[in-house]
């Protein structure tokens, strides 16, 4: 089935406003000494700046002018309202724009260049358009349901597609997240110990869920898992990675043997890049799944 013409139009606008937002982020990144930094819920590991807020406002102002009947969900607006329920449901036909204005705020504050604006369109709970743009490194990732994905207009995954028969030759990624409660950290460290002890070749933490998934899509990382992610962290990168031939799933395995849906509001993700044989990717995904301990997060 070819990509929808409506979706192509959404992508055009997403790319335009991502570029515009990227200019603001890059300028602020280069003058960080003037940043005003706030803590979310008095958590030193969960930061927000005036750049996050102003970029989100600018993105939604532009998109609402194009599509006044659509729905809009953004990280900063959701956090400010105190209601974490995004309202994204599987039976809603209304296009919903899901935005993280600065994914990697802590990186941004510290000058670590893994920072991105993430924009997605979600219909019936499924991301159909995704744009993830890192203006610091000038990497523009885009994906369109049934239309492929690319980085700087080069099709993903970037060649060559290396063999990947097991975790023993895999470079994997995960994150610790902003919740530093002992129960959460114990579950995450246990999974990390089991995966690395499998053994995996190496582990990385980039500090940006959307960029990490895009690096899986391009083939620079082989797999990634995390609990605590929000819909705005993963929605854009989900369509990019899937259109690059990768697998994107939740931590729990569905009862059905049919193709797995991915619930972007479930607060977790596990994904594997495209491999020469899909069975290898599925085997690696399942081997990671077996190490994951349940971590209780409220749904988006």
TrEMBL record:
The keyword Iron-sulfur belongs to this UniProt entry's keyword annotation: no
UniProt keyword annotations, A-Z: Hydrolase, Magnesium, Metal-binding
Enzyme Commission number(s): 3.1.3.25
GO molecular function: inositol monophosphate 1-phosphatase activity; metal ion binding
Pfam families the record matches: Inositol_P (PF00459)
UniProt catalytic activity: a myo-inositol phosphate + H2O = myo-inositol + phosphate
Record CDD domains: IMPase (cd01639)
Alphabetized InterPro entries for the sequence: IMPase (IPR033942), Inositol_monoP_metal-BS (IPR020583), Inositol_monophosphatase-like (IPR000760), Inositol_monophosphatase_CS (IPR020550), Inositol_monophosphatase_SuhB (IPR022337)
Domain of life: Eukaryota
Keyword Hydrolase included in the entry's annotation: yes
GO biological process per UniProt: inositol biosynthetic process; phosphatidylinositol phosphate biosynthetic process; signal transduction
Cofactor(s) the record lists: Mg(2+)
Pathway(s) per entry: Polyol metabolism; myo-inositol biosynthesis; myo-inositol from D-glucose 6-phosphate: step 2/2
Family of the protein in this entry: Belongs to the inositol monophosphatase superfamily.
Name this polypeptide is given: Inositol-1-monophosphatase
Organism taxonomic ancestry: Eukaryota, Fungi, Fungi incertae sedis, Chytridiomycota, Chytridiomycota incertae sedis
Gene: PHI674
